[in-house]
Amino acid sequence: MDSTPSPSSSSSSPFGLVSSALSRYIPGGGAAAEGGPADAQGERATGGRAPDNGTAGRQDQILGAINLDRDLRITRCNLDAPVFAGVDAVTGSPFVDLLPPGDVPTVTRRLRQVLETGEAHVARIQRLRRADGSELVVSLSILPAALPEESLTVSVIAMARRLHLYAAETAIGTSLDIGETAQSLAQSLLAWGDVAAIDLDFAVWTGEGVSEKTRGRIRLRRAALVPDRAWPEGYVTPGDDLPSDASRMLAQAVQRDDAPQAIVIPDREAVERVLGSPRVMRALVPGDRSAGVACIPLVLDGEPPVVLGVAEVWRRADRPFRDSELFELQELVARTAHHVDLARQHQREHTQVLALQRRLLPRTGGDTVEIASVYQPATPDSAGVGGDWVNSFPLPDGRTALVVGDVVGHGLGAAATMGQLSMEARALLSAGLAPDEVLEHLDKTVTMLDDAESGLAAGYSALGSTCCIALYDPVSRRVSLSSAGHLPPVLVTPDGHAGPLAVRPHPGLGAEFALREPFDVHTFDAPPGSLLALYTDGLVEDPALSIDEGIGRLTEAVSTVHPWDALPKAARHVVSTLAPPRQRDDVTLLLARMIGYRQGDTATWRLPARYDAPARARGYVSVLLRQWQTRDDTRDSVLLLVSELVTNSVRFATGPITVRLIRAGHGLLCEVGDTGNGRPRLGRGAPYDDGGRGLRVVHRLTTRWGVRWTDTGKVIWAEVAR
After folding, report:
1. Phi-psi bin for 257: left (phi > 0), alpha (psi -120 to 50), beta?
2. Among 592, 580, 444, 584, residue whose Cα is nearest residue 529
3. pLDDT tens digit string along 278-289?
4. pTM score of the predicted model
5. How buried is residue 599: exposed, middle or buried, by Cβ count under 10 Å (0-12/13-18/19+)?
6. How far apart are CA 513 and CA 518, in angstroms?
């Protein structure tokens, strides 16, 4: 091999810099070859068992450099250190010839990425093949060359065992994803064997608390397996559950005497004797060449210790495990078990956040409004799942509530606050409060949460969160909307006109006292076919555009939705069109297509508050119920209900009385409005007490009833099954 850099190469190129650094690590005149420490990898390659005298693995970190062209072929190399003996980097040969076959796709992809992006890829734990079939563990870095014609420089560092342990632990702790953590551990374990597998307790995957289990009841799922290659039929691969007898066998092996212990099965005969069943052999043994296995439990310290799973390292029978190697395996697994548990806790938080988020997503719009929503977190882990929420739900009085909000921050704290605000908004809206009144309550809630000792201890504040609430009345076909610092919704009318609503800006929830202003109510017509879009800022924010331009792009995208288009598909199309490629925030969109009640399904009468109002109301309602061909028992119930409610309005209110009847779904909705501000309350009452009997009659005749407040008074509504 050519061990001397070309004179024409730039001394500042990565290859030149790495080559010049070799003199600091390689003594001149071959001293390193004569007096250097033994190479543990080389000892293993001979097939002999080196004595455990403490010298194995005490080699220094050694540098090497390989230069590649754009076809990933070797143009120059400097691998003169004794530790690289047997690694034949021949000029003109493909670099991938130095790699185990299973690693070729991944390393090739990394090399191409550095070529395309010019960004270095550093410190990958990698194995290189020697001519005698053994392998050398190195830390591999891919560096873009200074000169375009040189393409790439690959630097390699042959690492001693202790350095490998440190590098492996560092690499394993970089992710909070369970699969990635297990994969990093498996790749690190390959330094001691031919095949490495990680099998985790199923509870780790779900994020549940792992506790003591009765022996034999553990359930394992394969989390990682390296190298990546074709496996025999029946062998368990990542994502598969181990057969119950295989899980039980591994659990019994590593929990001897009720204490987690590492075990070594040295040869195939012993493996067959321990595993017994051919089915278990097919599931656990990776191939004919793999004869011996070391099983190391992933253990959480405690009283008693808890087993998270099992790490398996397989190797050929001619390379038995030394005691020192088994100690190193146990040390690496013990050092990284807490990373697995951190990933488990992270997964639990992630599951809780997503469950809460999905619980708040709209299910259906009902008969009077069609709903579609999209929620797209910024990242797949819980650190990226934030406080964005969108919800829609029918109110008991026939209206539909549309709510979208954005709580400050990400993670479980933001999601918990989001869930609290969302549920509070739903309860208050269902109780009949107007949108501005609901926002006043949410404003106080955010302020109280920030003052709470638990909130301060958690280091989380929801001040500045935003919310927008819209109520759609399918009878009047109007929408009442209030906003707390949220971006304006976009309305597309049936005639094709589209634009953001002129909603007065507000500082948001929990603003300082000096900034607090009353919440406005914006009311507008929404005839059948109107399309309303509510969203969070992640959909329209782009560093290259102003926020007004982002809202303009959203308006244009929503205006292209055809009245006959399926709304869920249209919502996904809008998000895919507008969402930035590198999403920095959660994206939330709610589309609501207004339908309303048919003209013949509603009727409204206005009556003076006089003694004859109940009789007149019964007459009007009786004629309408006959036209609707309502059953006699339902008609009698509705007439009695209307009579009681109108009588109550005449006695306790002034001004005109409004009677409305709505045919909706499987029921009839009756509404009686007046100018009174007293809240009807259902009480038990004494047997001879006249007061409150009307409400008790209403309660018995209806499936549900309630009160909502208006600018001029109140409306009592009640539903009767048809």
Report:
1. left
2. 592
3. 888 888 888 766
4. 0.57
5. exposed
6. 12
